């Protein structure tokens, strides 16, 4: 966790020492938070703690996204063969996804007046790399679900630990609740790329800040923007997968009970 938070600061030298100090404090806080959460035997704030590799895939997705965008943007200050290659790949990906009504087109349309061509290329590359990593992360998670029988091939799953905010007694049927919550998360994940840029622009303009002020800010904004979408989609898939597991277990129990009933001969 410390390495993930500090990687952008190490790859993108920042002239403001306060941002470097803030990154170190955030890294330490994140590390302590994860240690406490996974060391506790009681429910916390992290979901699916006991159902790997859900959180491992999310962590790897964010880590790779931050690293790739940092390498691409570092070409503006210290160009290398690797940084130029990653930047070129990101620009090509961004151009391929820059079509009408796409999230990339919306972000480019919301850029302030006076944005240079170099900054536009940086934003397009960051978005392209972020979405490529997010799609790969979702694909890997979907494959692991099928291969490993996630969340549990034996059918055992601790809802109390893995879903601390989910109340199975709130509705009539837990399967319907999980399917509904999963569908809501997937819908939010599809809408978030369009809604979050508008909200972020309004907040940034009211505070007089911009993601183009520094490469480090651009890296984190684009990474968290794509990661939030991937997290919601992955959570929706996981909850619907859990609902499927519970329904299959119910059918198996009902079938076993049906076979175990004694046969009565007619009088």
From TrEMBL:
It comes from the Bacteria. Keywords: Membrane, Transmembrane, Transmembrane helix. The chain crosses the membrane at residues 20-36, 56-73, 85-111, 123-145, 186-204, 224-243. This is Uncharacterized protein. It comes from Jannaschia rubra.
